[in-house]
Amino acid sequence: MNDLVPRRRLRDRRPSASFVIALVALFVALGGTGYAAVVLDGHNLIDGSVTGSKLAHHTISADKLSSGAQDALRGARGRTGARGPAGARGPAGAVGATGATGPAGPTGPAGAAGSAGTTGPAGPADLLASGRVTGVATQDTPPTTFFGAPVGVSAAGASNSDGTLSPDVSTHASDLSVQLTLTPCTDAQAPTSCGTGGTATITLMVNGAATALSCSMSTPNTVCASAAGTTVAIPASSVLSMRISGDLLGVAGNATYNRDALFSFQMAQG
């Protein structure tokens, strides 16, 4: 009977299961995690022993994954997006060095010949009227006014009836030039010395009317010309003649000093 009492007491003092579990939990809390941090590494882990459910969220970054795992995580290439607006033009770059001249290319084939164009209308024609009036001063003839044709050679006459017909188009006359074969002079005995002055005036006549195309000369000159820029209109089919007037004397009984008048002028259509 006495032996049972101590045993009962010892049995009553044995720790309970809940007490033991509490002590183990306390031991693990105080020293178990430190042991795991010191002892566990990649060599101690068994393949497949750590599952995804044991990993805390957001604890593994992409750089901790293998390249194969990273490639597996990449999705398929998406569709090309719409073109964005054009950016601002950048500054011009520096001019590069001139490149070497390339070889000449082959000669291309000859092009087709163009069609011949139509001939244009003829431009206005210029005419040169030139003539000589003989005997504007003769022996035994007092000073008087003579007329002659503006083209070819004609004898001086007292009438304006001697003349030349102009073309059947409107024209203009200009640039009159005149020369006498001897100096105008009133000295009948020595016409080449001309002690007394003499004059001569030559004028273009159109249909019997004097025009502005005229010139005059005085001793000792034998030539004259119309004023620069002087132009007179000549209607179509007009009668043209030259008028010679002035102090022109011949030498009595001596035809050596007879005088002729030479002249020319320009005619242009229009």
Range of helix content: 10-25%
Kindly report the average pLDDT value: 76
* Total DSSP helices: 3
What is the CATH architecture descriptor of the domain at 126-269?
Sandwich
Poorly predicted parts: none
Element string (H = helix, E = strand): HHHEEEEEEEEEEE
Q: Any idea what the radius of gyration is?
A: 67 Å
The CATH topology of the domain at 126-269 comes to Jelly Rolls
Number of strands: 11
Q: Would you tell me the structural class of the helices and strands?
A: alpha+beta
Q: What is the name of the CATH class of the domain at 126-269?
A: Mainly Beta
Q: What's the story with the biggest beta sheet?
A: 6 strands, mixed
Gap between N and C termini: 174 Å
Strand content: 25-35%
Shape descriptor: rod-shaped
Question: What does this molecule look like?
Answer:
- The chain is α+β, with helices and mostly antiparallel strands and 270 residues long.
- It has a domain of 144 residues: Jelly Rolls.
- It is 15% helix and 28% strand.
- It is built from three helices and eleven strands.
- Strands 1, 3, 5, 8, 9 and 11 form a six-stranded mixed β-sheet that branches. Strands 2, 4, 6, 7 and 10 form a five-stranded antiparallel β-sheet that branches.
- The longest helix is centred in the N-terminal third of the chain and has 23 residues.
- It starts with a helix and ends with a strand.
